[in-house]
Amino acid sequence: MLRSFSRLGGISASRICFQQPTVARISIASFHMGSRPNAVSASTSTATSPSTPLPPPMAASIPKPDTPLPPTTANATSAQGTDAEPVTGASSGQLGAEEDKNTQDDAESAASAFAEFTPVSPEQARSLTQNPILSQLVNTIMKDGKKARAQRFVADALLEIRSRTQSDPYHVILDALELASPILKLTAIKKGSKVLQVPTPMTERQRRRKAIVWILEASDKRKGEKLFKDRLASEFLAVVNGNSGALVKKNQLHKMALANRANASLKY
């Protein structure tokens, strides 16, 4: 009888003799057979055969990040049907080096277009209203309260100086005003029936204004240039070069002050 039960259900005799509680249990015969149980049984009536073990679990085939990728091959083939040669690491490195060289050449060619213009630092990039020297130049040029027009004239003159000298126009104007600025002025005082010229020192603002007036007068007398910006830029450059009419007036004033140096002690 026990043999018939074992043939029908494949259950060992030890499982029938020893009744176990109706909880999840594993067949005893499976441990004797040396195989892994197929499933956990929840009742005494449903049990799987221990003679058919399950296959081992399949591991997920996830590629490792450190695994190097295979070399890429060319997709295009020739007309005769021949396979394209794969791109090696050396050839790809050469292509990358050539691309970097071409990019560097393009950047150098683009920068060479602006190589003649020297960069202006933030301290030198001053506006026409905040800078006292340029503001005084604008106010001296201004007529009938048209300040915007005078500012445009000064800005155009600065650009013209930059295009001619390829340097900072602000420094050119500073040098020109310093060269054309007189040190002394003559003050007329009456002593009895005589009018005496007394040389007196000038402040920095007075010296600068006198130089601006002389430069503007000399620029108005220039011939061959119709635009005001061209005449003004040419006169500033002429002062720096030493052949301006403003320098002549400065030397004349200093000679007169030297001739009247005996009157320097007089009070006025």
TrEMBL record:
This protein's name: Small ribosomal subunit protein uS7 domain-containing protein
Where is there biased composition of kind Low complexity? 37-51
State whether keyword Ribonucleoprotein applies.
yes
For biological process, the GO terms are:
translation
User: Cross-referenced InterPro entries, in alphabetical order?
Assistant: Ribosomal_uS7, Ribosomal_uS7_CS, Ribosomal_uS7_dom, Ribosomal_uS7_dom_sf, Ribosomal_uS7m_fungi
| Biased amino acid composition, Polar residues | 72-81
GO MF terms here are:
RNA binding; structural constituent of ribosome
Segments carrying the region annotation (Disordered) are 36-111
PANTHER family associated with the record = RIBOSOMAL PROTEIN S7 (PTHR11205)
Domain (Small ribosomal subunit protein uS7) spans 128-261
Q: What are the protein's UniProt keywords?
A: Ribonucleoprotein, Ribosomal protein
